[in-house]
Write a structure and sequence with these properties.
Blueprint lengths: L15 E2 L3 E8 L3 E8 L4 E2 L2 E2 L7 H16 L10 E3 L20 E5 L2 E2 L2 E8 L2 H10 L1 E2 L2 E2 L9 E7 L2 E2 L7 E2 L2 H8 L1 H23 L3 E12 L5 E4 L8 E5 L15 H10 L12 H19 L6
Length: about 300
């Protein structure tokens, strides 16, 4: 198991650090104004970054995103995206930067103005959608038929946007509110594009024995107005992937992500209000294996031996 990367300190200015990614905006001699996105091995749960990383997790997220960006850019309706390269030797980085820790976990992307809404698509009943459905019969305000089972398939995928939160949970909002903020035409375009990407991702996953239960996308705009799919795409951190064999049992299946971590934390006695405890070695190993399995099933390869 390779050493984990928990944080980077590159001579590219002050980074923006998310829960998982370190992002550096700079000017490359080869590509102009760009952003370097480094996926670390940090892992979060219940809105906390945990003290124990998952080795190679960042490589898995990068490999899966790169796979989807390439797949979605093909065919009669290609999806434009922000990824320029994952080859650190082709990024035009300063010679002083050690490429070793960046290999396999870095994306050089075009800079875009990120639209401040998460474009969530749900095809199956789980998460906050299930909790709302049990109370009101709706998911994000969208009425659904009665008697849908937990983990059940929706009659058709639904678009349920959310506001982007700097910390904590994003907040589900109505399509009308999204349209009032960014304009009806743009909102409708993002809805249609998001539903299309979901359908293409779900079809590919289904052929490999995986259900894409739900996912969230981010979109950005270039100065000329071109829409780009940005950030990560269809990874275990941004999506619920389930083994197809586990669906339809009247319960929400375990996901191909950090379910081992969540379950252990729930049973640990942690109050979720104070700094979280360190993860046991076996939980780390099982979680790493689950991420690698998702990558292998979806893309046919894994980023590590």
């Amino acid at each position: 198991m390779n050493d984990a990367v928990t944080e980077t300190h590159l001579p590219l200015g002050t980074p923006f650090r998310g829960k998982v990614r370190d992002c550096y905006r700079f000017t490359s001699d080869r590509h102009g104004e760009v952003m370097l996105i480094v996926s670390t091995d940090r892992i979060s749960a219940f809105d906390w970054i945990l003290p124990t990383p998952i080795p190679d997790k960042g490589k898995v997220l990068t490999a899966i995103s790169a796979f989807w960006f390439e797949l979605l850019s093909r065919g009669p309706s290609p999806i434009a995206h922000h990824l320029l390269t994952t080859d650190v030797d082709a990024m035009g980085l300063p010679a002083s930067i050690d490429r070793g820790p960046l290999r396999g976990r870095s994306m050089l992307v075009r800079c875009a103005e990120v639209i401040p809404f998460e474009c969530v698509v749900r095809g199956w009943l789980a998460g906050s959608g299930l909790a709302e459905y049990r109370q009101t019969g709706t998911v994000c305000g969208v009425p659904l038929p009665p008697s849908l089972a937990p983990g059940g398939r929706l009659p058709a995928p639904i678009f349920t946007p959310a506001t982007k939160a700097a910390s904590g949970h994003d907040e589900n909002v109505s399509f009308d509110l999204m349209a009032s903020r960014i304009g009806g035409g743009l909102a409708a375009t993002l809805r249609d594009k998001s539903l299309d990407v979901y359908a293409r991702g779900a079809e590919h996953a289904a052929a490999r024995g995986i259900i894409l239960a739900d996912t969230k996308f981010e979109w950005g705009r270039l100065p000329d107005g071109t829409l780009l799919l940005v950030d990560e795409v269809l990874t275990p951190d941004s999506s619920r992937f389930w083994p197809a064999a586990a669906a339809g049992a009247g319960r929400v299946p375990d996901s191909f992500d950090k379910q081992f971590v969540r379950d252990w934390l729930e049973a640990s006695g942690w109050d979720k209000a104070s700094p979280p405890p360190a993860l046991p070695t076996d939980i780390v190993a099982k979680t790493r294996d689950k991420y690698l399995e998702a990558c292998r099933l979806l893309s046919g390869t894994t980023p590590v031996g």
